[in-house]
Amino acid sequence: MQVDGKSKKRILLIEPSLMVGKGFASVIEDVIGYQLIASAQNASRLSEQLLSSRPDIIVFNPLIMSFQHRTSIRSFFNIPAEIALVALVYTFVDEWILSQFDAILTVNDDQTQMVNKLNGIKKSLPVSDKSKSENEELSERENEILECVVKGMTNKEIAEKHFISIHTVITHRKNIVRKTGIKSVSGLTVYALLNSLITYEDIE
Amino acid sequence: MAKSATYSLKHYPAFSPQMKMADLIHANYKNLVVLSRLGIPLGFGEKTVEEVCKRYSVNVTLLLLICNVLLDSNVDPTEEQIDQCPVEQVVLYLQQSHRNYIQVALPNIQILLDRLVAACSETHGKALNRFFNEYRQEVESHLAHEDQIVFPYVMQLLGEPKKSRFTIRQYKDRHANIEIKLTDLKNIIIKYIPYDNTDYLRDDLLVQLFNFEDDLNRHTLIEEKLLVPSVLRLEKSILQS
């Protein structure tokens, strides 16, 4: 299920607002072309729904969780690693809560952004025999972006080169920093050299 | 000398002037560097913190404040305590810390790093070396800024204050870059350097980096909690006079 983009993704939605939920449903089915298999306004039956409906992606508003469980949604509901967990956000939510999600959709996302974000997950989803909940290796795309960053390209230049929005470039950069734990460009340069993404001559 | 009751810390009276100086070190070995930096040598027998401080003319409130901040970064000195700490001794402590970083900590890290670089492939070694040099230069220039501008400024406030465009407010939060690079360096060494030996070289280097980071963080705390507020007050009193 990882790479094949043609099969219709099956989505389960957990969203407290009826209006937002209905709106999401119509966008995801009519515009994006994914299938919304179930939706609920709270997560009380999530565990059963997981078993009965077997979604590929759970779209989840983190605010429905009580505060102490907000950072461990995946483990709290025992969500298997092969199911992607995506946040649906339209109010301020802390970075450390969002960091557990495979992607973050906001209500202002346009079609391209939604598609990019949802497609972005497929690549980083772990192969099914891995028991790890999250694949932390950099994806192909992230490696490409990283290469541009350490060669000194601006976000705008990177966006133009790869035909993605600046916003997406920033998201990739955030993920790169989160995964590697390296924030400075010179630190990332060392990472890129060690992983042969660039050669020493590229930066001399 | 102030009565002992005035410098028991409000929130965290972990160390007291009446305890044995030796126990201060047993309680937290990181206090060792505080003594060295304040010019107190070991070998004080059974003497108390207060007695030893008196002997070496070190302000006991200052020593205990520093030790308490080292132990618990949430400790906030009261205004009274800040008043009791002579600014020149705070500066002396910070200067000696700098000297320690430049003359001991960084060279020691460099030695281990050089050994690791030598064990890596040429490209990897070059990359690591390049990054560390960049980091080291940043640290050194940050320390030099304080040594050449901030500390002399504070010291001249104590003597005959001249008109100066620099004020202590301009000196805040210049540490961010150094902290980021140090974290980056640790991650690179922990996660990405292809070095398969288990001869403790990499561990030793990391322990030194963690210690150095810890020391720098505490150093920043002393600057923020002690130096800045006490200089702010000094500036104010000079303006008023």
> What are the segments of chain A in which pLDDT stays under 50 over at least 5 consecutive residues?
1-5, 126-133
- Helix segment count of chain B? 9
Given as residue ranges, the uncertain stretches of chain B (5+ residues, pLDDT < 50) are: 1-12
What percent of residues of chain B adopt helix (DSSP H or I)? 55-70%
What's the CATH H-level homologous superfamily of the largest domain in chain A?
Answer: Response regulator
Domain module tally of chain B: 2
User: What structural class do you assign from the helix and strand content of chain A?
Assistant: alpha/beta
CATH class of the largest domain in chain A: Alpha Beta
Give the DSSP E fraction of chain A (strand runs of 2 or more residues): 5-15%
Count of domains of chain A: 2
**Secondary-structure element string of chain B:** HHHHHHHHH
| The CATH architecture of the largest domain in chain A | 3-Layer(aba) Sandwich
**Overall pLDDT of chain A:** 83
How many beta-strand segments of chain B? 0
Radius of gyration of chain B: 20 Å
